[in-house]
Every structure is written in structure tokens, then in C-alpha cells.
Amino acid sequence: MPIRVIISIVVCFYLQTVHSHILLAQQINRKDTVQVTVDSHKMSMYVAGTGKYTVVLEAGGSSNHRCYRTIDTALAKITRVVSYDRPGYLKSEICNKTRDAVTIAKELKEALTTGGYPPPYILVGWSMGGSFAKVFCGLYPDDVAGLVLIDPCPEDFYTRMQKEHPELMKEDSIYMQEILTSTGRPGEKEEMKAFDTSMQQAKLSDTAHTTPTTLLIAAYGKIPGDGEKDPNNPMNLMWVEELKKWAVKRPNLQYSVLENSGHHIAKEHPAMVIKAITDMIEQIK
Known about the structure:
Layout: H1 3-29, E1 32-38, E2 41-48, E3 54-58, H2 72-75, E4 80-84, H3 101-115, E5 121-126, H4 128-139, E6 144-150, H5 157-164, H6 170-180, H7 186-193, H8 195-205, E7 213-218, H9 234-247, E8 253-258, H10 265-268, H11 270-284
Parallel strand pairs: 3-4, 3-5, 5-6, 6-7, 7-8
Antiparallel strand pairs: 1-2, 2-4
């Protein structure tokens, strides 16, 4: 066979192989938008990757699925990743149900089932989303293989702050009032109406599961203004204290305090969050 023919065959095979690898990488990293109907309203989900475990990303209060865009593509290389928007955020329709944590967890379960994404799940919750994730674990303990909490709301924090440092809660009260009187933030508004109920539901959920848990605590970032990066500011200090207090009571939990991070850990230190999730996958294999 002429050498030019052999070279042409080899080059053709090489190009086909490279093209196949590129297509595979694009397929793995592509996020598919899936709309499912839950309780007569449509919810948007964003899905990428494949694997035994489905990592479910729960956004914080006032946040949507985009808060995880620093980590979802990397995670999709090793397993399936699902993020979504709760009712009233972006393209997820509003609904008339009370937006407490139990309702949110039940809707998420129905959305995952309807979308065809079965357990086992690894729930990841940031900020207020941590409370929603904890409630999901309490309602569906057999479906959840692991829980990763990213600087979640300590349920007793706000009551303690109001009692010990009411002057520091004035800014928070103004923020809450802005949301509750807004007309263009329906998702946030309804969730904040049910805030106290959700915090209580999250506390009660602790008795219903012993899910292996990783907790990442940010040392600062809980107060706006000059004291934001001061870990000894009472608001930052108390947040960390309350999470530590909760953590030592929980079985199967390991935690770390990130001394160089603010509240948005996934944005500031995405590699740390990715590692926490991949370590969880290795732990529960």
C-alpha cells in the first residue's frame, strides 16, 4: 500500500478520534435545561454529566442556580449535577403555595422524580439553601447518600443576634422589609415570609436523619460595611459559633472553618467546594 495512502488513513483516524473526544467533552459539560411541572407550575432544572450519584445544588435565599456556575461544570466531569430555580426565580413560574422549607423540599423531590433523576442524591446547600437541603434529608433520608453544607444559616443565629446585638440587626431588618414590600422579587418575597417557619423545620429535621455531612464555615462575610471581613465582628463571630455548636452534636459530620473566605465560598474558593463534594463521593462509595 502506498505510503501516502497509509498516512491519509492514519491522519483520518486521528482526526476522527480527536473529534469524538471533543464531542464527548462537550456532551459531558453541556447543561441541558429541563422544565418539569410540579403542583401545576413549571420549574426549570439544569442538568449535566452522568454517574451513580446525582449532586443536587440548592441555592441560597435570594439566589438562583447561577450561584453555582463556578463549580457545576467541573462536577459534571465526574457525576450528574442538577441545579434548579425555585418558583419565582428566573424562568421558574410563581405558585400560590407557602414557600416554607418542607414545601420546597417536597417540590424538589417531585421535580427530580418527574425529570427522571433517581437517587442516590448528594445534597449541596448554600446559606438558606442549607436549611432547605437539611429538610430534604429529613423527609427522604433513604434517598440521600451525602450532604454538603456551604456556610448554611444557623437556625438559632437570628434569635440570638436580636437578643444580644439588636443594633447590628437593623441593617438586616431594612433588607427584609425591602424584600417583603417588593413587587418584582416574588420568589424571595414568599420565601422570606416563611423564613421563621423554615428555620424551625430545619431544626426539627435533625432528628430524622444521620446523613454523612461535610460542613464548610466561612470566617466572615455575614455583615455589610466596614466589619464584613472582620472575623471578630459579633455577627461573624456568632455565626461561626452557632454552626460549630450545631456541628459537634451531629453524627457523621466533619467541618472546617475557612479563615480566608467570606460567605460566598463557591465564588471565592470554588476548588474547596469541589473538593468537599468529590471527597464526599469517595467517602460514600
